[in-house]
Design brief:
Blueprint: E1 6-11, H1 21-29, E2 34-39, H2 44-54, E3 59-64, E4 67-72, E5 82-84, H3 90-105
Helix pairs in contact: 1-3
Length: 116
């Protein structure tokens, strides 16, 4: 049985730890489940699109060598909702996770102040 969760696809050349863990905490803070899946793909936009297409909730996050992308399955493949560089703040990553959950819940997004 497939999980009903926000799928997070990441480049297996990266590790989901430190600042990137904030994405998971943001989703958890909003009360939704997540699943993390490694991939050989390196592009955050491609990973985000695959993640959203494979999620029963239609929302996915891609973590690639070029950054972090929040994607919605109703959008075009290369036009995600948000993309942040890997050098972004912990707060920006947490808010990206929160926004993924808020998209599903139909709540307003939170936008980090002065985010990179």
């Amino acid at each position: 049985m497939e999980n009903i969760a926000i799928n997070i696809y990441y480049s297996d050349s990266l590790e989901i730890k430190g600042d990137l863990e904030e994405i998971l905490y943001g989703i958890e803070e909003e009360g939704l489940p997540w699943t993390v899946i490694g991939s050989k793909e390196r592009s955050s936009k491609v990973l985000g699109n695959i993640a959203s297409e494979s999620s029963k909730l239609g929302v996915g996050i891609g973590i690639g060598n070029d950054g972090v992308t929040l994607h919605y399955d109703k959008l075009e493949e290369y036009k995600p909702l948000f993309t942040y560089p890997l050098s972004s703040t912990r707060k920006a990553f947490r808010m990206l996770g929160m926004n993924g959950a808020r998209l599903i819940k139909g709540e307003p997004f939170v936008i980090p102040e002065g985010g990179k």
